Amino acid sequence: MNNEVEVRVTTDNRQEADRIASAVVSRRLAACAQVVAQISSTYWWEGEVQQAEEWLLLMKTTADRFEELAACVRELHSYEVPEIVAVPIVQGTPDYLEWIRRETAPERGA
Question: Can you give the pLDDT at residue 2?
Answer without folding.
Answer: 75
